[in-house]
Amino acid sequence: MAAVLALHLGFLGWNIFGVQQNLEVTGAAQSHGAHSYGGRWKYLTFINQVLQTVFFAICVLSDLAPLVLPKKKKLSSFLLQLRDGTFAVLAFPIGVFVVASFWGIYAYDRELVYPKVLDSIIPQWLNHCMHTVVLPLLLVELYACSHRYPSRKWGISIMAAFSLLYMAWVLWIHHASGIWVYPLLAKLDAVGLAVFFAGAMLVTVPFYCLGELLTWFRWGTPRKPPRKRKAK
Predict the structure, then answer these.
(1) 141 contact partners, CB below 8 Å, separation of at least 6
(2) Which residue spans traverse the membrane (predicted)?
(3) 51 or 113: which carries more pLDDT confidence?
């Protein structure tokens, strides 16, 4: 328990530091897109940074509750369920999507997602903090802690709702300000945008299933409570 708490405190501290550095670096560069309509909240990378920070904060609270408030079993159970649900539905699939999509597009043509001019604004280590380190932290978390997954239908539905909300936010930003969050989107017509958004949304499903599968490989299928027999 102490080792897991120390791990979560370290991961939380790292993510808080990453968000703080993101705010400081992009705040100092007036030419950065963070100062246009929507601010930093139009970037999925920043949203994911905040999401990972919130997730590991929940992990810390979940670890502390049984130690600090041993009699509050309902609170401990709630925090544990919140931790597991957040990991399964958002933290793991969205985190992996950010890493995979960023580096996949970057390898093809970095100007479509991370123009070279950003190298003079965002240091390389912070770039990797936002787009690389997320994955190993999630894999360590998966290995260190058993997470109970919700039903696949429920989990994927919540994840899909999050994805749709972000896509609607991107489209609203373009409608309200005339700018696209990512240069790639400016190169697509209406059909291309529809295909891109649909493809991006569908890609998150295998990432959700990957987390579920890796959890099963590491921890096995969690036992289900026995059914109560009906009284005759």
Answers:
(1) 7, 11, 59, 87
(2) 42-65, 86-105, 156-174, 194-219
(3) 51
